[in-house]
Amino acid sequence: MSLPRYVLRRALLGALQVLVVLVVVFVLVEALPGDAAVTIAGDNPDPAVIATLRAQLGLDEPAWLRLWNWLVGALHFDFGRSLAGPAAVADIIGSTVGPTLLLAGLTLALVVPLSVVLGVLAANREGRIVDRAITTGTLGLYSVPEFAMGILLVTVFAVQLRWFPPTAVGADLLSRPAVLVLPVVVLLLRPICSLSRLVRAGMIEALRSGYVRQARRAGLSAVRVQLAHALPNAVAPAVQQLARTADWLIGGVIVVEAIFVVPGLGTTLVESVSARDLPVIQGLAVVLATTTVLVNLAADVVARPGAGGFGGGAMRGEPKGMDPVAAVEAKSARRREERPAAAVERNGVRAVGRYVVGGVLLGIPLLLALFGPLFASGDLSKDAAFTLGGGHLFGTDFVGRDVWNEVLLGGRSVVLVAAVATAATYALAVPIGLLAGMTRSRLLDEVVMRPLDVVLAIPSMLMLLLLASIAPNVLWVLIGIVVLINLPDVIRIARASALSLSARPSVEAMRMQGESWARIAIGYVARAMARTLAADFGTRFTGAIYLVASASFLGVGVSPQASDWAAMVDRNRTGLFIQPWAVALPAMLIIALSVGVNLVFDQWWRGRTEVRG
Hints:
By secondary structure, the chain is mainly alpha-helical. The chain is 75% helix and 0% strand.
């Protein structure tokens, strides 16, 4: 297929995705309890006043008619007017998009060069202390929620050292660039971690390829070999990952704007969901979904074979579609047998060291989360708010409760919800992915996979806010939302693995011998998939911790009276300058839990790879 036809096909598919997203968002907002008329009427509303307001706002019309009128107007870039005021939706978005674009633009402008520099540096120092420091640090920080890292940075650099402003309240972002430093640093950490690891893996693989060796034999300088020959192929996977960070960046901006009080699109979205302001929510959904679709389209075009992009896909002389991370790990495992015994022993000592660090970071918050409630005090008496001392080890919180007692009670919800959500995701995704990957019916595969594209086009934080607003603040609802958000990715991984395994000669031989579909799928393919899914489990679990903690920070999924580490960060941040322990302690525990899980799972997977190699 020619490039113009490919772009046109993807653009039409993207337009259809945006349309479906708008319908889904409309249905979700319609399901929210109450409406804008009830919100405007306030406490003790008069039914007659509410009826009048509904008529004035057009809420008495049928839902399908309101959706149709809005879609017709959207085609002319008329998104209607806010239900909470006289302002046009386009004006609201236009007045708040500036800070968000500034934060996102600075993040994207910095993340690419920093990721490339770190990835190339680590690749050129493979196995040395610089490489280990970069890979371990990026792996550990990858899953840390923005609010936890943001609060920690504010505590250290704004409260204690007073180097930067803690919030953007009343500040002009352009005239006071110091206000942007901490928000941009928080937004940079996660994409840098993922992109630099991909660049490192791709660079290592490129430097070992045949054409790079040939370039060296031709007498080309090391700099030219790396920049002109190795790097273009090494960054191809990172381009795809950069597109995948669009969804994360949208969610990250929402949280970061809430922490640093930045008046951007994220703050507007949270306020609109609370006010049931459907036109504003729909307008923001158009902006966010269109951004996601366009970024993914651009990445697919750049990375498409023959499109003139970065390497055009696979490297010369290497199998197409090869995952550079997996390739490097596999080759490292095969080379292990060739290493001398002393080198193997040194690697074993280093592995134990990494286990110790990860185990300590994971063990402390995990033990507190699981066994803390057993040692928590039943005394519910309250003292003065935000005090230090007075018989309280870490002071009191915003209502005078003992901070340490709340810490002992608040970790179980984060850990258990993330664990149950991850297990439920795999329990649902693996059978669906297995069915889609092993079916010989293209129609069935399309029916299973195409709805997932719609879910992926909805920013995860927008979906989380809308779904959680419909249902009560109970943990099982939060579990279901996390499962729904993670389900498409895990189904895709399971389907891709099943497709690859079902094409093996051994599977064809089993089919020719008359083995049943169930025996082949469950007895062979599913068992062979286990290794791939196990490698993904650690990342998925830390991602669930990230979503659960971020949701709790935004007040989603937990009741106002519940003890929860992330909710503690949100409730107590108003007293950060007075009593920082009420905010910093739960934030540090969430960071330690996220980093520890990633380090332990990564080291466990490396150990299994080396043993199997």
